[in-house]
Amino acid sequence: MFKIFSKVAKAFGVGKTPFTSAIILCAGASSRFGSSKQTATVLSKPVVARTIDAFEKCEKINEIILVVPKDDLLSFQDIVAENDYAKIGAIVIGGETRQASAMRGLKHISSKAKYVAIHDGARCLVTPEIIENVLMDAIDFGCATAATKVTDTVKLSDGDGFIKKTVDRSNLWNVQTPQIFEAESYKGASYVAWEKGIEVTDDCMLAEYAGLSIKLVETGKDNIKITYPEDIALAEHILMKRNGEDK
Q1: Separation between Cα atoms, residue 95 and residue 190, nearest integer Å
Q2: How many CB atoms are closer than 10 A to CB 110?
Q3: Could you read off the pLDDT of 4-58 as tens digits, one per residue?
Q4: For the chain, how big is the Rg over CA atoms in Å?
Q5: Is there a contact between 76 and 68 (Cβ–Cβ < 8 Å)?
Q6: Axis-axis angle for helices 183-196, 98-106 (nearest 10)
Q7: In the chain, what is the greatest distance between 2 CA atoms, to the nearest angstrom?
Q8: How far, in Å, are 43, 93, 110, 148 from residue 58 at the CA level?
Q9: Which of 48, 68, 87, 148 fits 76 for a cystine, CB–CB 3.0-4.6 Å?
Q10: DSSP secondary structure code for residue 32 in this structure
């Protein structure tokens, strides 16, 4: 009976993950890092290559759109060629802001895409498991994001460098990427924000402005973003610990 059900389900596409495109954003200025953080190496491998690896290995991701700085286009093309990635659908020149870069990437996703994942290229410790977990919740709820609960005590300042009050942290989360959305909803939210001149710092804000609910998916504290040079050492420590080499 189970085999018969499985055959019927497969025939009608039941249980199949919808086509999902990933837009990896690498076009930032890296001003706090001091040089291109995307091409800096973590354990002898470029940051962006480690990021692409995770999406390449995630079976639920069908294509990858890479959004890069114009001046570093050749470097990114070389990295893609050296690693022989199979899912790269396009390498796109980014815009002046994160939002503009995401819009440019969005124009190049496949017409088959039912879901779109937006990810920071510098968040190179993401894993295929994290990507899949966020995607599964996005399919269930329409939108989902990698995140982790705030554990530090949080203070609100008065604007002059003094504590105004302590904020209840029980419902506070640090949001990460990937942030994954039903593709048509994300497109609609992006274009509405663009037309109204709304600038956002992450893609969940687009969904918030559109009145969409975003599921928070606990993905832990290791999914860090490379921002400062010292983050390289931290990333290497986390990777060695994962591999059982940091003893």
Answers
A1: 14
A2: 16
A3: 433 334 344 445 889 999 999 998 766 677 567 888 999 999 999 999 999 999 9
A4: 19
A5: yes
A6: 130
A7: 69
A8: 21, 25, 18, 21
A9: 68
A10: T
Name all contacts of 150-154 with Cβ < 8 Å and 24+ positions apart. 150/174
Q: Give the HSE-up count for residue 120: Cα atoms under 13 Å, Cβ half-sphere.
A: 23
Cα gap 47→69, rounded to integer Å:
15
Question: 50: which residues sit within 8 A by CB, 6+ positions away?
Answer: 42, 124, 125
Of 139, 149, 141, the C-alpha closest to 212 is 141
Distance CA 247, CA 232 (A): 19
* Cβ pair 96, 56 in contact under 8 A: no
Neighbours of 193 (CB within 10 A): 19
Instruction: Average the pLDDT over 73-85 and give the result.
Output: 95
What one-letter code names the amino acid at 34?
G
Task: Look up residue 201 and give its DSSP letter.
Answer: S
Q: Are 175 and 204 in contact (CB under 8 A)?
A: yes
pLDDT in tens, 153-205: 999 999 999 999 999 999 999 999 999 999 999 999 998 888 888 888 899 99
Closest Cα to residue 239, out of 127, 130, 122, 115?
A: 127
Residue with token string 């017409």: 111
Q: How far apart are CA 171 and CA 136, in angstroms?
A: 22
Helix (H, G, I), strand (E, B) or coil at 127: coil
